[in-house]
Hints:
Elements: H1 2-5, H2 11-23, H3 29-39, H4 43-56, H5 62-71, H6 75-88, H7 94-100, H8 106-118, H9 125-129, H10 137-147, H11 153-162, H12 168-184
Helix pairs in contact: 2-4, 3-4, 4-6, 5-6, 6-8, 7-8, 8-10, 10-12, 11-12
Amino acid sequence: MIKKVINDPNQQVRSMAIFVMGLKPTPEALPILIEILQTALDYGVRADAAGALGYIEDVRAFEPLVKAFETDTDWLVRFSAAVSLGNLKDPRAKPVLLRALQSPEVVIQQAAIAALGEIKSIDAVDAILGFVQSDDWLVRQRLAEALGNLDTEKSISALRYLAKDPHANVAEAAAISLQRLARTT
Length: 185
């Protein structure tokens, strides 16, 4: 039934169908979503496909997501691809995500920081610690959340610093991450 509405003229219907394909995947969902990601003219539909590929958590989506991140000109598609690379938890994403940290778009930086935490890239800690004093509180919050997956002395030190952040969401994220790290050690 979902395949019938994947090309519906109403973009909201298409988006919901793509979303459901990611949440309730069938064996044919992966190739359909990859094709949509690679061929859809509407950037919103491509972004939806990238996001759905992350929900499926199938490493076969790795290459198409990397290609989308590196070649698509729309920030929303690139953002969705970066988030999904984190959802795949594939360490091969590290070089792409490290390059994403250099993006002029703050949302791409946020996605990359979060994704590096998701893939548990301990050796990326130094690279993401450069964002500890970002002017953007969402960047600092994503950093605090990511550091909760990266058990190093530098991470713990940065989290103690972020736990005193003036923005309540950042401080709370840092406190939660410190608790998580304390339970794992």
